[in-house]
Each structure stands twice: as C-alpha cells, then as structure tokens.
Amino acid sequence: MCRHTLSVDWTGRLSDCDFNQMLDLGVAAGLPRHIRDFDPVRFAAGPIQTGAHCFGCTAGAGSSCGGSVVSRVSSEQ
Question: Is the dihedral of CA 15, 17, 23, 29 positive or negative?
C-alpha cells in the first residue's frame, strides 16, 4: 500500500498509508505535506514513514500490503 498509494485526510494532509494517517504520522520530512503541493516525482524518490505497526504489512499480513516497503532488484539477468 505505502509504495503505491497515499492517504489524504479531510484537511488535505498526506500520509503514506491509512494506518499512518490514523496515527497522525505524516509523510517524511522534506516531502510536501498537503495535497495542494503534491509532486509525484518527489514522492517517487522519497522515503516512506514507517513504525512498529508496519511489521503487520511487511510480514504480508497487512491490509492489501505486498510484504515489503522496499523494492528488491534481482542480481540475475
């Protein structure tokens, strides 16, 4: 979820996922914090805010999460 979507609260504040939104954990420092300032290029290269609650998602048991907050690149060609 956090690698492909953003959560937007009713005031326009951005979070990396709906769990972060409920915990009032906004996007990482240096990224636009409000939907009016959204920049897809900056978000694509930016870090994801994580916390202990993320272990549910990274274990593959979270709500629609794919099991990792980072992409893995195969060394085999």
Answer: negative
